[in-house]
Design a protein that fits this description.
The complex is a heterodimer.
Chain A lengths: L6 H18 L5 H18 L21 H23 L8 H20 L3 H19 L6 H32 L4 H10 L4 H18 L7 H8 L2 H25 L8 H23 L5 H20 L4 H33 L9 H4 L1 H15 L5 H16 L2 H26 L14 H19 L2 H11 L2
Helix pairs in contact in A: 1-2, 1-4, 2-3, 2-4, 3-4, 3-10, 3-13, 3-19, 4-5, 4-10, 5-6, 5-10, 6-8, 6-9, 8-10, 9-10, 9-12, 10-12, 10-13, 11-12, 11-17, 12-13, 12-16, 12-17, 13-15, 13-16, 13-18, 13-19, 15-17, 15-18, 16-17, 16-18
Chain B lengths: L1 H22 L4 H22 L7 E7 L10 E6 L1 H20 L7 H20 L3 H10 L1 H11 L4 H29 L9 H10 L4 H19 L7 H8 L2 H26 L1 H6 L1 H20 L4 H22 L2 H32 L10 H4 L1 H15 L5 H16 L1 H26 L15 H20 L2 H16 L1
Antiparallel strand pairs in B: 1-2
Helix pairs in contact in B: 1-2, 1-4, 2-3, 2-4, 3-4, 3-11, 3-15, 3-20, 3-21, 4-5, 4-6, 4-11, 6-7, 7-9, 7-10, 9-11, 10-11, 10-14, 11-14, 11-15, 11-21, 13-14, 13-19, 14-15, 14-18, 14-19, 15-17, 15-18, 15-20, 15-21, 17-19, 17-20, 18-19, 18-20
Classes of the chains: A mainly alpha, B mainly alpha.
């Protein structure tokens, strides 16, 4: 019975239960399914505080699944994300032509995969969990089948995703050849005891390529803008926050905490990650400058955020990881807020193009203010929370003495400001064109966006809760 | 005494509360005006009770950790003489900036929220004893300034606001690198963001020469961009020319001085050898500020551009005071920081009145305003005379002390810098002549004067403080003296 306290299994039960219910009671409205799913997610979220270990200490499962604090941290992050994704989906469900209830249930499967990924300490579990995430995303991205953009995004994501899976499997196979096991701790042991040979390096490179696709880091980023643009907005939010965090939890486990973490490997890994970080920051920020579509722009900006996160991981130090976790927290908060507002406004304004946002501050001061807070936080301007994330990462890099990377980060952050301000400019400076009537908001949406904005402001100057959450993760 | 301890906290966060009140419907202009007036009263009270000793007083501290075992950061507020002077300047200019804003300004709520946030940022930066918050509070003003110029600005506002914001953000990032460098150069046991602890640590174990040489240029570059040190001055004139009066007054008058304040807190006391290494470079740059920008100012044909360039030019003098490193020079620098803040605010405020009344900013299209608007003319000429460095007004006291202090150390640079006074006399007198005297401009016919004290009181307030510093600078010097002693003795 111990297995029932695994949050993954709870999620699975919830998802399958809802699917069954929908199959037998077809008349149920999708919105009710969404509320049920959200309530279930809240329960699972609360359950993550129940600390009984799922397996007896020396069970063979231990080699596959870890319930450590890092896993719990990411599981909570994924649960919060899917809660928001469900909320967004339920609000814009009219945009989905067919299979609305499934559109609301599929994210639960994705989340199960992500949560399993957070606990995976063996390449077998990593691979299976990653596929669960990716395959459900293939479906979600292409869900608006009446829109060419959505189908195109789905196809692109499918092809690129399959390619990256191939790289990953190839890398895992190589590693198995070199180590004779797929467990991360065996890999660490083999590296510690034996000589370093090219097989390890080649396998690490292939695995890094596979993960690079998931994180949308340069040079494996090409899919991101198109997919972000074409996918339904809640799915874009899920990709930007959930999928990215999932890529990073594996990256941290495989390269920075366990697995390849070995004196002989560190210089190679650090320089490879550092290079990816620098390229992502530069390309993400510079390519975002001319974008006219908000979702596309956020696609590029998410590439740059992947770069900043990689900067932290490339330190391969405890502080680096702490900084990455903190960055992920504030990035998720601001991204979810931004996507919530974009999702809300999409049907009202008739699209996500920048000119449609002209004069938004006149039509809906609350939404404009929230979007401004989200973007300014992403740009990393104090006193908003995003600054703390950047500060942590910069400080960790500084401590490692990697000034070149720091310089790239500073240049990237400064140029990123331009396109974030472009949106603020559109909303505040310009007068509304076309429709001018005020946008009415329900109390729930209003209090949600105001709470998130307030959180971004407050966490910018008072980080004790965030810092504590992050500090506990690595305290073993 | 307990109440006084929390007064700085109240001063900093009152504008934030006022913003919330305005956002939820309280009358914008009245709320804003009440807030800045209460703040001015509180600041004056704080100054009245400030003991004549070195060190920080009325300190209150609240834990706000950013990263465990990495940064321990507290929101620590308190005042010493130096910050008192700057806070007083901020409070006075804030009152003037709110008061001179047009009564029926477009999108009133957002306007006053932005102005109050800028004021809050400046107050917080000067009252913070924690390096982290010193930095953060300054940045609070960035986005409100962007919005103020972008929404309510004049010609070229879009370009000017974007340029200014990105310039300032880039400067802040360089500064952040400098602050990080400073922090990590501290010995491991004494790593702290608290300025008092930094002082203690560094008074026993000063920075090595190598780290000083590394940190100083970062701080000088970062603060220099915020101050508009040549060649990073380009954002300032265009930005100020496009700003609405309140933004220009607060920015040119107060926020720009934050850069000097930071240098006085970090670079001058703890990095003397770093400063020595780069002193020739700094002298060349500050002379470029005074002489080159001075000549550029002479060539300006628009009143606001001229004032913008002139405010860039005068930064050179303050840099000269800082570069001297002598007690007299540093005292002069602080006196000039305060007086220049007041005179710049006065001139930018009046320039917007002139622009409103005449409908033009071109100097050659104005003329003969003095006969129609004698009070306006009197106040403007007072501000111009102050800015030129005429005895009896605050700027003269500051400049004189700076020249005395710098002459001993950098006599050649001082020799050249003094010529800046002639240059500023040229452009100010020319501007006064073409605005207020000579032939009537096209618009001079229907000009009305400021309607007595009811309209003029914000300007009179600024002018009174200028006179107070000019005629009796001792009160200000006495206030800042203990802090200067601390800086020099380290």
């Amino acid at each position: 019975m111990n297995l029932l306290i695994m949050p993954e299994i709870q999620m699975l039960v919830l998802a399958i239960g809802l699917l069954m219910y929908e199959a037998f009671v077809p008349s149920v409205s999708p919105r009710k399914i969404a509320y049920a799913a959200m309530a279930g997610v809240v329960l699972v979220f609360a359950g993550t505080w129940c600390t009984v270990p799922p397996f007896p200490v020396d069970s063979p499962w231990q080699a596959l699944y870890s319930g450590d604090a890092l896993a719990v941290f990411f599981k909570r992050l994924f649960l919060v994300t899917v809660f928001f994704v469900l909320w967004m989906s339920s609000e814009s469900i009219e945009e989905i032509p067919l299979g609305r209830s499934e559109f609301l249930i599929l994210p639960l499967f994705t989340t199960t995969g992500m949560m399993l990924l957070a606990s995976a300490v063996n390449f077998m579990t990593i691979f299976v969990a990653l596929e669960l995430v990716t395959i459900s995303f293939y479906v979600l991205v292409a869900y608006q089948r009446n829109k060419a953009a959505s189908l195109e995004a789905g196809t692109k994501y499918l092809i690129v995703g399959a390619l990256s899976t191939g790289f990953l499997v190839y890398g895992i196979a190589f590693l198995y050849g070199a180590v004779g096991s797929t467990s991360l701790s065996d890999l660490a042991l083999a590296l510690a005891n034996g000589p370093l040979h090219a097989g390890f390096l080649f396998a690490a490179l292939l695995i890094l390529v596979g993960l690079g696709f998931k994180m949308a880091a340069v040079p494996f980023h090409v899919w991101a803008p198109d997919v972000y643009h074409g996918a339904p907005t809640p799915v874009t939010a899920f990709l930007a926050v959930g999928s990215k965090a999932a890529g990073f939890v594996i990256l941290i486990r495989v390269f920075a905490l366990d697995g390849f973490k070995n004196e002989s490997m560190i210089p190679y890994i650090a320089s490879a990650l550092g290079l990816m970080a620098a390229l992502s920051i530069l390309l993400g920020n510079l390519a975002a400058l001319p974008q006219r579509n908000l979702k596309r722009l956020l696609g590029y900006s998410s590439i740059s955020h992947a770069g900043f996160l990689l900067m932290g991981v490339s330190c391969l130090s405890e502080r680096g990881i702490q900084a990455v976790l903190l960055y992920l927290l504030v990035y998720s908060l601001s991204s979810l807020l931004a996507f919530y507002v974009i999702n809300k406004l999409g049907p009202i304004l008739g699209g996500d193009d920048l000119p449609l946002y002209a004069g938004l501050s006149r039509r809906s001061p609350v939404l404009a203010f929230s979007l401004m807070v989200a973007f300014v936080s992403m740009a990393g301007i104090p006193p908003l929370a995003g600054f703390i994330g950047k500060l942590g990462v910069f400080a960790a890099v500084w401590e490692k003495g990697n000034y070149g990377l720091l310089l790239v980060g500073v240049i990237g952050a400064a140029s990123g400001l331009y396109y974030y301000l472009k949106i603020v400019r559109e909303m505040y400076w310009h007068e509304p064109s076309g429709q001018t009537e005020p946008i009415v908001l329900g109390w729930a949406s209003k209090s949600l966006v105001l709470t998130l904005s307030a959180a971004l402001v407050v966490f910018g100057v008072w980080q004790i809760p965030l810092a504590r959450a992050v500090a506990d993760v690595l305290a073993r | 005494m307990t109440f006084l301890t929390y007064l700085p906290l109240l001063i900093v966060f009152l504008p934030v509360l006022a913003c919330l009140a305005i956002a939820s419907g309280s009358p914008a202009r009245q709320t804003a005006l009440a807030t800045v007036l209460i703040n001015l009263a509180a600041v004056v009270g704080l100054g009245f009770f400030l003991p004549q000793e070195s060190g920080y007083h009325f300190v209150s501290s609240f834990p706000c950790i950013a990263l465990p075992d990495f940064f321990t950061i507290n929101l620590t507020l308190g005042v010493d003489g130096l910050s008192m002077a700057m806070v007083l300047l901020t409070a006075v200019v804030s009152v003037a900036a709110v008061a001179v804003s047009p009564i029926r300004v477009r999108r009133e709520k957002e306007f006053y929220i932005c102005v109050l946030l800028i004021s809050c940022g400046a107050l917080g930066a000067f009252l913070s004893i924690d390096l982290f918050f010193l930095y953060i509070f300054h940045e609070v003003a960035l986005i409100p300034t962007f919005l103020l110029i972008g929404i309510w600005g004049g010609q070229d506002r879009k370009f000017a606001a974007t340029q200014m914001t990105i310039y300032l953000a880039a400067g802040s990032l360089v500064l952040l690198a400098g602050v990080l460098a400073f922090y990590f150069a501290l010995p491991e046991y004494g790593r702290s963001m608290d300025l008092r602890e930094i002082q203690q640590v560094l008074s026993t174990t000063p920075f090595s020469l190598a780290s000083q040489k590394f940190i100083y240029p970062l701080l000088l570059g970062g603060f220099g961009i915020l101050i508009s040190l040549f060649p990073f001055h380009h954002w300032a004139p265009a930005g100020y020319a496009a700003s609405p009066a309140a933004a220009a007054m607060l920015h040119a008058g107060v926020l720009k001085k934050f850069g000097f304040y930071g240098l006085l807190r970090l670079a001058v006391p703890y990095l003397p050898e770093g400063a020595e290494t780069y002193s020739t470079l700094l002298l060349v740059l500050l002379l470029a500020n005074v002489l080159y920008i001075g000549l550029v100012t002479v060539a300006q044909k628009e009143l606001n551009m001229m004032l913008g360039f002139s405010s860039v030019m005068h930064m050179g003098y303050i840099f000269l005071g800082l570069a001297s490193g002598t007690p007299i020079g540093l005292t002069g620098a602080v006196v000039l920081m305060v007086s220049h803040g007041l005179s710049a605010a006065l001139l930018f405020g009046l320039a917007s009145v002139i622009r409103e009344k005449t409908g033009t900013t071109l100097l050659k299209e104005m003329g003969g305003l003095a006969s129609k608007a004698p009070l306006l003319a009197f106040l403007f000429i007072l501000g111009a005379l102050a800015s030129m460095g005429t005895p009896g007004l605050g700027n003269f006291a500051g400049e004189l002390l700076i020249f005395f202090g710098a002459w001993k150390v950098h006599s050649w640079a001082t020799f050249f810098a003094v010529w800046g006074i002639v240059i500023s006399a040229v452009y100010y007198l020319r501007a006064v002549r073409s605005i207020f005297f000579g032939e009537n401009g096209k618009f001079a016919a229907e000009i009305s004067d400021l309607q007595g004290l009811k309209e003029a009181w914000p300007y009179v307030l600024l002018a009174l403080f200028l006179l107070a510093i000019g005629l009796y600078p001792a009160w200000l010097i006495k206030m800042i003296e203990p802090s200067i002693q601390v800086i020099v003795n380290l």
